[in-house]
């Protein structure tokens, strides 16, 4: 289990992390969310030992993380990078070996990954000869070639087309099923909602929300309401209403509002009936986007 | 063990990737081939041809011919006398280039006819021959025998005793240590920059973060310096061997007596000296991201390398001056200067030992310092990082 405990990090006067804490359990996919500049990359770099935190600590299975334990970690940095003139298979094998694999194991693992990603016929190509999408795949393979027990992926979905996104989501689920702990950051919240079981939301260097998606939804203090009366969008006036702020999600034509979770549904229903004939009534737990806005706007 | 294995793997990758690249192999084969094939040719072409043709109006006097040939011998010229019918034919032969000079002995003191300008060596030899001929004539007029005449005008030269004759091996030593210094200079200036470019390349392609999530910065630094440095050493050695082969082929190395111990010590100075500067270049490389910025920092080490180079050249002529004594001990000047000084004069053992210890200590120090600068600067993508910033940031980077 990965435990990030009270991480502090400043760059000069700028405070990047102000006591960030969260956990990632074995075999779970953790979505690591936050606005730009919230401290996601800094946290990831601290986990990987690329930065030394000013305070707090990172432990893996109860032990402080050392350069040796990190060999079992895989990292995909936000700034993508590979050796442009090195052959794809050689490159993956090299990264495998740097992570402690024997030469034979690393070569076999590199071939297996290329096969898995549909790049077996490009193994002798140099990275600079690959298309953008294929480079992305090789980048992912580079971070996973040594079968890490913890994979930390910074924006792994950015720049992928829908097919690539599906393929990556499938890969992540497969890895998690094999016991790999996965922490990844993303701004595509519907994707996170789809792939993750756990989420961590960080803002201004502090974790503001953490837990399983289900728990967070249930324990949320708001509910999502969308109602149509006489075929037109309707909103209650007798309960405190909060704009969800977001654009209507794909597939839902009716705009929604957030209302406190403790408001009895019957009261809202009664008010709607008074307004006319209800043609549509949805009362749901909040979406991840709702919770995200809620968390970072506090 | 993991740490050393990683260093070895980084070194291996940097070495193999470059060594198997086509431009590298092509350059190496071209340079070595050029030196081996072109060296002797060049040596031959630049060695002056000793053959000279001297035209003399017929009939050629046998004594004059033998005097001209022997005077030519004394100045290492291979003189042939050719007869011409008269002065006009002689002039024509000079203009046509059939002879180098027309010698007109009579009337005394004679005339030497050249085409554009006198060949000074040949001119003095011919004057000598004419003088000798005149002396022989005067001696005969006085009734002296040839031997008496020679004894009268040119008594035998004194014998020369050498109390401390120059050892041919010593001049070989000096030549070898000088060549070693030149090679060190080129290695530092050329391959030091290669190390630097190797570091910048990793930064500009952003791959460095992927690598550093697995390898600690100082290990990456060490691996790069060893890998790219070793490639530089291989190239320099290939070059040195090519020079040696070319010298053997052309006969220039016939008197060369290389002492294996000396070669080993030159190699030792070379390796440590090169390591020192390679590490410096690597640390400087970590402070820039873009290839365009490389030039601005690549010149910094020259502030030390150029003076070291010139003092080394100066030390060939004056190996005992105070400047040479001091700089042969002080790093990082010592690897340039100590081999030359110790080949020229007897250097006390303690000074050599001190010089070696200081250079090793300085190299260790610069590795530690560079490791810190490297780890502080390597993840800062974009603008150039000042050395002070890099030092400060290094406390941000992981140390264990």
Low-confidence stretches of chain A: 247-251
Give the integer mean of the pLDDT values of chain B: 82
SSE string of chain B, helices as H and strands as E: HHEHEHEEHHHHHHHHHHHH
Q: How many independent structural domains of chain A?
A: 2
Q: Structural class from helices and strands of chain B? A: mainly alpha
- SSE series of chain A: EEEHEEEHHHEHEHEEHEEEEHEH
- Name the pair of protein chains with the most residues at their interface, and give those residue counts: A-B, 33 and 28 residues
- What is the residue-mean pLDDT of chain A, rounded to a whole number? 89
Number of helices of chain A: 9
In spatial order, strands of the major sheet of chain B run: 2-1-3-4
Number of domains of chain B: 2
Major sheet description of chain A: 6 strands, mixed
Strand proportion of chain B, as a percent range, falls in 5-15%
What do these coordinates show?
The complex is a heterodimer of chains A (298) and B (400). Chain A is of the alpha/beta class. Helix content of chain A is 33%, strand content 28%. Chain A folds into 2 domains: 2-213, 3-Layer(aba) Sandwich (Rossmann fold); 220-297. Chain A has helices at residues 40-47, 88-98, 103-116, 132-144, 162-177, 189-195, 213-219, 265-275, 288-297, and strands spanning 2-11, 14-24, 29-33, 55-60, 63-64, 73-76, 150-153, 181-185, 198-203, 206-212, 222-229, 232-234, 242-243, 257-260, 278-284. In chain A, β1 and β2 form a beta hairpin. The longest helix of chain A is centred in the middle third of the chain and has 16 residues, at 162-177. In chain A, 42% of the residues are buried. Chain B has helices at residues 2-19, 22-46, 62-74, 87-96, 120-142, 146-153, 168-204, 208-212, 217-250, 260-286, 294-298, 302-317, 322-327, 334-344, 349-377, 387-393; strands spanning 51-57, 78-84, 101-104, 111-113. Chain B has 16 helices and 4 strands. The two termini of chain B are 15 Å apart. Chain B has 2 domains: 6-37 and 169-393, no CATH class; 51-153, Periplasmic binding protein-like II (D-Maltodextrin-Binding Protein, domain 2, 3-Layer(aba) Sandwich). Helices cover 68% and strands 5% of the residues of chain B. In chain B, β1, α3 and β2 form a beta-alpha-beta unit. The chains are: A alpha/beta (298), B mainly alpha (400). The A-B interface holds A 11, 45, 48-52, 66-68, 70-71, 73, 75-77, 79-86, 94-95, 97-100, 139, 142-143 and B 2, 6, 9-10, 13, 17, 21, 202, 205-216, 379, 381, 395-400.
